[in-house]
Structures
1.
Amino acid sequence: MNKALAVMIVLVPIALGVIEIRLPSAIAFTESAPTQTSTITIDTAVQIFTNYLTRLGNPDLALHEVEEYQNNFYASYFEKSTGIFAFQMLIWKPGSIWTGGMMGNGMMTGIVMPEPGPNLMWNTKYGVMGGMMGIYHQTRVGNNMTISADQAKSIAQSYLDGVFPGKTAGDADTYYGYYNIDILNGNNPFGMLSVNGYTGQVWYHSWHGTYIQTIEVTPIPAPEFGQNSAILMLTLILPAILLLRRPT
């Protein structure tokens, strides 16, 4: 099935109210911008995405950053306890070509909604699973992808060499079931793509348009130094300390 058609099959019935999403800990439609015709700034978008997170009521989730593109504002959320990215959301700008025609004549402009593509179709914990039309529910608890982050970055670079020569793949952000990778033009952001963590399939995010700017809201925490790691470190260091303290 054509990717664009598959996304429309999922998104249009939800936007029309044919399918209702009810899962507080997963992605859903909630906060809306002041109006669907007024200009939305990135500061306004940050506040709307933050309000959305508050309404979810999940203390383990945090808003990482908000990126502004020609067509929309993009937000990424992550789990504090694992450091794994959870899901991606959008706010469509007024006048975007993606919000007209079959997408509803602008009816999706200004509301927080799930990003189409891998976020919906590949996300094994927070995405659309089960049936063509799909419903939101959490499925796999772990994230045992068979493709590593380094392999995903290599796959992304091979794709870029063929489709966008001269562009480079950034670091691979780990989501449940896939990796999200920034596309760089030199040191500057150009766009993004995703790599399926099981099949290696690449999905370019064609709906953003030209990159404009980024605001980081919450840094990704460094991995916690667990108790087992501390014991192992002491086991390795203590003999050396004792050896140095031995009288000569």
Note: Residues 63 and 77 are 4 Å apart (CA to CA).
2.
Amino acid sequence: MDPKELEKLLADAAAKAAAETARAVVEAQTKAAEELQRKADEEAQLQAKIKAAVSAVQTVDTGAEKLLAEVEKRLNDQAESHKSALEGLESALREKAAELEAIQKSRMQFSEPRNSDGATYAEKEAAVFISKITKKPIEETKYAKSLVQKYASGGTAGAAGSGGGAGGAVRLPGQTWELEVSTNMENEIRRQLVVAGTIRQIAMPQPFMKLPINPDAGADATWVANSDFGAAASSGTARTHALKDIEISSAKLATKEYIAFEEEEDGLIALVPIIRDAITRRMAKTLDKSMLLGNDVGATTYAAGINGLAYYDGSATASPTVAVGGKLTFAKFLDARRALGVWGLEPSELIMFVSQAAYYDLLDDSTFQSTDKVSESRNTLITGQVGLITQTPVVVTAQMTGLAANDALAVLVNPRNFVVGNHRAMRIDTDDEVVNQRRVIVASMRIAMARLTSNEGSGVVAIRYV
């Protein structure tokens, strides 16, 4: 094709495209203008009808009536707008109803669950600690007032002990929150305990109690010969059987923290979790070690308010030993069972507490079954359990740290011969030390532990270093 013809062809195409574009723009503008004019005509007709209707009424509208009419008109317009917006979505919503419900149910909840009174446990705990530290009623603290503003949502806060306020207001029941925090802290201590969870526990209404026990009557019953029927020997040999009792007394376990007067209430909110964790951790560690080694005469005697399991090892001469630097083996476990006597006949009733060093010794013993080798049907939920030896749970504890002569590295016990008494739950008290310009926080509880009987032995054997 000749270049001039090609140039002419391109020019004609460009001119045609420009003409079509201009025509489309003009048509769009014309259409928009017509639409605006149509809407203006409709509005004018509507206004004319309104004026005609108003003129037909022979009453005089007040300012309030006009305002009411305007409000009703706007509400109607809004309702129509919403209706028209949802008309195209009704069928889609019906089709996706099941899927939308499943999505709503499967959403993960990342916030801490709240109770019926609205506040989370962490908020209650902070409120109780701040109340104790500042020595104010809970409802008078700045933090509690902020909770009221956070959850009230137009309601009023419930009075102390009165339940929730109107409109979903947060409740500030004082004593109820203190009891909940105290119970939760005590439960947190027990979750960290290794020994206490394996021994039967009883409530102690008094700090000192006598527990009745029913010991063995001694000899067996008597076989009666046929020739003795009708005679005195027909009733068997008389046996003397008397109930006995043991005394159990609770001891006080306490710890304290100090807070300077300079700490403001806002700053205490960040300190509450730290103080709470420190208190529960110290109480749990001390209680666990006391129940295991309390007053036991090892290389260093651990003084405690209660006697630990190792203290009751009454067969010291028969108890197995391990040379300092030696290893705990399956053979030593069998020796400990033998030293238990009748208390050690049923291996599933026993529990063996071992130190960390003894635990690593057992890992080298092929007889030891660690938890990864134990089937679910034989596994248990004892805190600290790391495996089994002939159906006897092996529980590791960090409280047996001694490696010198006479220190215990393992304790084999039948828990049925021991009891733990709970006299008073966790209690938190505070007071001011004006001279030192600080507040003291004291957490305390009262607990007891005792052996039930020494018949047929103590029911516990400690394996010690020599």
Note: The longest strand covers residues 418-433.
3.
Amino acid sequence: MKNENTKWQEAEALKMKQLAEYDTFDDLGKGCRPPEGYKRINVHFVYNVKQDGCHKARLVAGGHLTDVPIESVYSEVVSLRSLRIVIFLVELNGLKVHAADVGNAYLEARTKEKVYIVGGPGLGKLEGHTLTIAKALYGLRTSGLCWHERFADTLRDRGFFPSKADPDVWMRRTVVMSTYKDANLYHDRTIGRAVTGILHFLNGTPVDWYSKKQNTVETATYGSELVAARIATNQIIDLRMMLRYLGVPIVEKSYLFGDNQSVVTSSTIPYSSLNKQHNALFGKPSPARFSHSSKIDGKTNPSDVLSKHCGHTDAWPHLKWLLFWRGFIPTPVEANDDNSISHNNGETQA
């Protein structure tokens, strides 16, 4: 340039570098034919000077040259009313507000449109190359929707879900309740009663526990384990109610872990061959309404320290979990088809 101002050239070069980093184009080669069904469009640079004086160049696709989609391409945005209410709730609960900007946001999403371009002089080494557009480039009709779906999928992967009041106000299930139970048959050999041990976690933090002799004398492991499951279920219902009274929403089932497969079957399938014991001990409605029962390895059941006589060698692995382990926070995906979940040194293998 005569005035030695190269800011716009630098802005274009930076944008081309970013497009390459995001794999925006699939290069088919110079002079190659496009794939069948792809429509040719144009692209052009749009220039802007930001408030901080930064020169920015943006490559925009000529989406107006494509056919109008049959399906809606509307992309929602959060309303100012919802934003004001969320900020009010933050202040009401003594929380902090964090704001962030996603750079090259649209390029994070892939486009479903079948379009291509032929590189012009502004694309440097790609001049004359046939390039199919793989990412949601600015200017395409569906780019806004593609980015919205990509962002929504990312939030879901991180445990968030859209509110019913405004689908663009996302929340996270901050409270997951998991309970471990165990029973030790003939713990008291004098009167023959078993001992029930129950340990409750909220988001991996032990908040309540129970260790007590059972009121009845059971002659089989299944009976004592089923009694323990009944007690644990009643405590789960009580704890869930208490959390609701404290204003903490419980939006999914609690997780009940034990090491007896027959009890898991009985509590999850009320009309199985064990339905008599199920109805007698649990009653109706079924505990499946409140909890998801899963089997874990008895050697890694932390509630064992509340039901058995354990020496240091046996107790320390469980105590170490309680003292240094953040706890198991399950997700519905981690439960196997047979309702079994195995633990290994504080980790979970589905």
Note: Residues 326-350 have pLDDT under 50 and may be disordered.
